[in-house]
Amino acid sequence: MPASTQKPTLQPGIAARGPGLLALKGPTTMTDDATGGNEDYPYIRAWGRMRGSAPDYLAYLLDLARAQNAPADAVEFRHRDGHWITTGEIWAADSRRHLGLDPIPPIAPDLDLVVAEIGNAMRCSRWMTDRNGLREVQRLDMNRLRMTFATGFTGDLHVEIIPPRP
Questions:
Q1: How many CB atoms lie within 10 A of CB 36?
Q2: How far apart are the first and last CA of the chain?
Q3: Cα pseudo-dihedral 14, 27, 32, 60, rounded to 10
Q4: Per-residue model confidence as pLDDT tens digits over 134-143
Q5: What is the mean pLDDT of the chain?
Q6: What angle separates helix 55-68 from helix 42-51, to the nearest 10 degrees?
Q7: pLDDT for 63
């Protein structure tokens, strides 16, 4: 059976790599326990182990998933809106690899989302905020951002996405 169509099982072998960091030892297939038993909601189990969730919290999520008849590929429950996050919503390559999933192929960039992400990245950059005094990032229009600095300087960023030539 091709790897992309095999049903994953949780494999023991998640090892701590320093405070809060986890790494998988050995293959990234997932079996639930030392006997290789296949249990319900393998992605909730794998995600919880990958994140270092407490066993009680993991048991709570599994009980909740069963009670709510969550999708078989459920990964995590989002309490703020009652939504079960599924494997289709996990796009980060490392996270998908830890779950034993194939990477999601890249999509064509969406200008609106790209500009929003650039603005978020600027706001989160310690170099921009601490060293350069970035105080505000405003979205001027669909493809322009304005940065305002504590020094009185401003900077405008224009983003254009150009499709590949045929």
A1: 12
A2: 36
A3: 50
A4: 999 999 999 9
A5: 81
A6: 150
A7: 94
